[in-house]
Amino acid sequence: MSQQPPVRSTGSPPPRPDASMSLLTNVMDHALDDGYAEASARRAAEGGGLPRTLRAKLGLAAGLVLAAMVVTLGAAQAQISAPVVAKEREELIDRIESETSAADDLEKQIEQLRGEVGERQRKALQRHGGDQAELVALLSGATEVRGPGVKLVVDDAKGTDQGGGGPRESSGFSDTGRVRDRDMQRVVNGLWQSGAEAISINGQRLTALSAIRAAGDAILVDNKPLVPPYTVLAVGDGKKLSTAFQDSADGQYLHALQENFGIRTSISSPDEVRLPAAPSLIVRTAEPRTAGAGTGDGQGAADTGKGTS
Predict the structure, then answer these.
(1) Among 44-58, 101-115, 212-226, which stretch is predicted with the lowest mean pLDDT?
(2) CB-based contacts of 267, cutoff 8 Å, min separation 6
(3) What is the SS3 assignment for 113?
(4) Radius of gyration in angstroms for the set of CA atoms belonging to the chain, rounded to a whole number
(5) DSSP state of 57
(6) What is the mean pLDDT of residues 177-188?
């Protein structure tokens, strides 16, 4: 029995170079889906997709005319209203300028009246001060002062964010380098305690009734906002006053602010500093009790009213 020779395999064809990119190849070979191709051919056979009936053509024309009318009316309305808006803007600018000028005039009148009131208050203080009128005027800040003293400059740390929000906004003792109202309070109290006879901050004279407060990020002295750097002038024995202040607890406090938080300070003892008079004074007078005081009738009590001005 004859044996069939073995059938030799012819082998598979070599793989395509892009066999691993069959999806991309399919997309490139069939860029347009069959359904889209059929729809495009059907629209072409029906006239290119444009309206074929007269009614459809009239509807399309009416829509185009309506759209053109809307655009035309909008442009005309904008052209008509533009001069009105410009006129109203000019009137508003004129009103702002007029009111600003009126406010400036009122501010000048206030400053003039304030000066007259201050002058009358100082004269009344001198009149009621008796033999010690000059000393009373000095202590109350009613007169200008000049003489030897101390010049202390306190400023925020370099690169300090002026927006606030630092840790020292809370009651704890930490800081971002801003000078706070309580810092200036301690500086002023330290100078008074060290022997200062008169003090001013940025030209604002301090009296026994002055208040140093904060409003947001600003430091107020008698309700007047100040900006850094804060220049503190104090009249007194310059070198002695400077040494006493730096050795005091408040001077050490200021030194700690400089060392720990970068607050900048400088102190000097010029031969002469000039301090202005306080801008506003409240003059009060007192009279001694009369002979009938203490009888229980309430008569003869000391006069501590609002005083004269």
Answers:
(1) 44-58
(2) 150, 151, 152, 153, 242, 245, 246
(3) helix
(4) 44
(5) H
(6) 91
Nearest 5°: the CA angle 257, 278, 198 is 55
The per-residue pLDDT for 83 is: 76
Contact 219, 156 (CB under 8 A): no
| Distance of alpha carbon 10 from the chain centroid | 89
Tokens of 158: 């370099």
> Which range (87-101, 171-185, 232-246, 282-296) has the least confidence?
282-296
Query: pTM of the prediction?
Result: 0.51
Q: Per-residue DSSP letters for 241-297?
A: HHHHHHHSHHHHHHHHHHHHH--EEEEE--S-EEEPPPS-----------TTTTSSS
pLDDT at 151 over 60: yes
Classify the C-alpha dihedral 239-240-245-248 as positive or negative.
positive
Beta carbons within 8 Å of 206's beta carbon, 6+ residues apart? 141, 188, 198, 199, 200, 221, 278
